[in-house]
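hi! just following up on the protien thing from before. the input was this:
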Amino acid sequence: MATWRRSMSTYRSALSHLERTAHQPRQNGLHEVILSKIQPVNPRIRLLQLALPNRASLKFLPGQWLDVFVPGLAKAGGFTITSTPRDAEYQPSQDGYVELAVQDSPKNPPAAWLWRPSSEILGASLLIRVGGSFVWPPPAIHAEEVKRLVLVAGGVGINPLISIFAHIYSQPALKPEHIRFLYTSRGTSQAVDEILFYPRIQKLMAAHPSAHRTLELYLTGPSHASHGGETHGSLIEEVSVRNRRISHEDLISALGPVKERKGVVTYVCGPARMTDEFVDVLQGAEGMTEDRVLCEKWW
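and the predicted 3d structure came back as:
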């Protein structure tokens, strides 16, 4: 099974975004956007803001991605929306926009174009189309039935989950009572502000503190070996930092008591092998069913 999964991962990683997602639902129309802002996060990731001109709005669900057509390339690139649906609504004081987090990927032509010098691409007109089925609320479950939400992110797999997380925080009436966010990154505790979306998560949690909504950062950067895998500390009360990888025990613990797991939904997004492994653990946990373990693989 492991060998088959490795070969499938290699095969799928060689496919283009459009080929990988051919079976996924897509909206019919294309929307014109303007690349209006570029903000570096760290040496390998930049945030792009795509403004919707002419008082336009864009409808999408948290967790979805975009087909992005850039000038001079026939094939679209695929990039997850990291902003919320509310951000894409026109406001009298501000045009709607969508945000993308794009990793420096020279072998990916659309990503390479989006990593050109800012002076060359700011103000450019792009075409986008919404797609994807890894969404909140979960397709087969009503949001009000979700009592505990478990989000598990690996690396840039944080992208759809930050949209889901921020959207939920903007909708107090539909917020699950318990939220456990497990996020593994190659960052270090000495440079947490360079960990993709950590400052945004911390800001949301600090504005709405609760002992029932927590973030667990699992850092695997250069400093993790020197700490022997022990908990390094806490950045704010609701955030704990562990200098090791996410374990199976961490996943099971995040699900909460077995008798309450009928109200648990989990979202997993990260590298393909990590996602496969964690999905197997979560689906096999006592009291869990397949329809309450949703996943997206970052190829």
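Confidence is low (pLDDT under 50) at residues 1-11, 224-228.
Residues 69 and 76 are 5 Å apart (CA to CA).
cheers
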